[in-house]
Amino acid sequence: MSEHPEQSEHPAAPSSHLPAVPPVVDREAFQQALDAQVVKEKEHTRAGDRLAAARRRLPMVEVEDYEFNGPDGPVRLSELFGEHDLLMAQHFMFGPEWETGCPSCTWATDVLPAHMDRLDEASISFAMISQAPVEKLQAYRAERGWDHLWVSSGDTTFHTDWGWTLTDPEGYIGPVPGYSYYLRRDGKVYLTYSTGARGVEPILGLVNMQDRTVYGRQQDWEDSPEGWPQHPTYG
Q1: CB 184 within 8 A of CB 85
Q2: I need a surface site. Which of 57, 70, 130, 205 has the fewest CB within 10 A?
Q3: Three-state SS sequence of the chain
Q4: What is d(CA 125, CA 104) in angstroms, rounded to the nearest whole number?
Q5: In a domain? residue 109
Q6: Count of beta carbons in the 10 Å neighbourhood of residue 164
Q7: Are 229 and 18 in contact (CB under 8 A)?
Q8: Domain assignment of residue 212, yes or no
Q9: Domain count of the fold of the chain
């Protein structure tokens, strides 16, 4: 995934030493600084609420009911919903010729909630879609200890139709990561939202936890004070 440096979901490497620390102040000065930060963060939260409201007002587009290859045979996109009418799909980078999955996508899957069945309580189904043959997907799934439904789109045009594989001869050629959100209504499937690049970060709870530590993600694209530990995002 080094072709897409704008993404930042790669885990931060542990630091062997901490060469710099914030200035030490008294309790009153710390509280004043924290209170000022909270004001900014509340506005960020309200901005997020406005974005979510706009997202709920997006139109939707019908999607072909592609027939994927699943662990138990052919499975259509509409069948990935199971008993629900909402589907969240992870576009996991695993090209047809690859022998292993993308390291960053692997990390993103590793940090999904431990109890994904909680999505059932919200009437949302979850599935992963990649181009690699289903046999490779199942082997990698077993190796990682995941129990998510993972299907192969390799025999369809799904990835190129919807921009999850790029074919620009003058640029990057291959799969890209992201998430799509679908609604099933009257037997038809509709795309209501999709996101890639850093748009996936709200799903990756660990990066939000890292962002609230003093050293952040420790990646070299971050705006951090001089002396803060940092490393290449895709080192």
Answers
A1: yes
A2: 57
A3: CCCCCCCCCCCCCCCCCCCCCCCCCCHHHHHHHHHHHHHHHHHHHHHHHHHHHHHHCCCCEEECCCEEEECCEEEEHHHHHCCCCEEEEEECCCCCCCCCCCHHHHHHHHCCCCCCCHHHHCCEEEEEEECCCHHHHHHHHHHHCCCCEEEECCCCCHHHHCCCEEECCCCCEEECCEEEEEEEECCEEEEEEEEEHHHHHHHCHHHHHHHCCCCCCCECCCCCCCCCCCECCCC
A4: 23
A5: yes
A6: 23
A7: yes
A8: no
A9: 1
Instruction: Evaluate whether residue 47 is within a structural domain.
Output: no
Residue 32, classified by CB atoms within 10 Å of its CB into exposed (0-12), middle (13-18) or buried (19+), is: exposed
d(CA 122, CA 127): 15
Q: Which amino acid is at 193?
A: Y
10-residue stretch averages of pLDDT, the chain, 235 residues long = 43 60 95 97 96 96 98 97 97 96 94 89 96 98 96 97 89 93 97 94 87 89 89 75
Contact 214, 207 (CB under 8 A): no
Residue 18: predicted pLDDT? 62
pTM of the model: 0.85
Domain encompassing residue 119: 61-202
Predicted confidence at residue 40, as pLDDT, reads 97
- The whole-number pLDDT of residue 142 equals 97
